[in-house]
Amino acid sequence: MQPSLSMCDLKQRAAQAAQYCAFLLILNGTGCVSTPTPRAAAPLDVDGYTAAGWTLMKDGQSKEAVDLLKEALIHHPDAFQVHVTLGQVLLNQARVTNQSLEPALETYRHALTLGLETRERTLDTTWTHYQATDLRAAARMTTLLSSRTGSPPPDTVHRYLEVAGHDLIIERNLQESPPHSHP
């Protein structure tokens, strides 16, 4: 296992990750409107937190990643992207330690709810392709983990399909899940 990174090292790694993402986006010609920049790695920036959390997880420091992402949620409780990243870290921890998938499932469910609310508020103004991708990940992971744990998928999965349209992965997992919950 690698030694723990200091906060200074985390900020530097997050800045490098953001620069790399910006470089890839420019190469792919996807535009600059929502392109991460080195500024995105500022300590209180959602992109900086998620990049640093992902980096820590990939470096085998899941506990530190969880701590950092929980700090991000103190500053950005409605940032569904942080919840998606936290869900991935918790899922990774569950796989490595052979623990319950429930914490990851609950985190993805919350990310899906927040993501749908964010989409409704920002559609046609600031909603980005990256947010759409994160929302799709939250919906797919909620459905997959619901199926794997025997939990009924929440109504938000069906709401996602109404908003986003056909998704073969989600639809296949819904067929394998118990009936969805009703309020």
Relevant terms:
183 residues, mainly alpha, 70% helix
> Uncertain regions: pLDDT < 50 for 5+ in a row?
22-43
How many strands, what sense, and barrel or not for the largest sheet? none
Helix content: 55-70%
Structural class: mainly alpha
Task: Kindly report the average pLDDT value.
Answer: 80
Number of helices: 8
Topology pattern, helix = H, strand = E: HHHHHHHH
Annotation, overall tally of beta strands: 0
Determine the strand fraction and express it as a percent band: under 5%
How many angstroms separate the termini? 45 Å
**Given the C-alpha coordinates, what overall shape results?**
globular
Please give the domain count.
2
Supply Rg.
Answer: 17 Å
List the helices and strands and how they pair.
Elements: H1 7-28, H2 46-58, H3 62-75, H4 80-97, H5 102-122, H6 129-149, H7 155-164, H8 168-176
Fold and architecture overview:
With 183 residues, the protein is mostly helical. The protein has two domains: 77 residues, no CATH class; 101 residues. Helix content is 70%, strand content 0%. About 12% of the residues have low confidence.
Briefly say what this structure is.
With 183 residues, the protein is an all-alpha fold. The chain has helices spanning 7-28, 46-58, 62-75, 80-97, 102-122, 129-149, 155-164, 168-176.
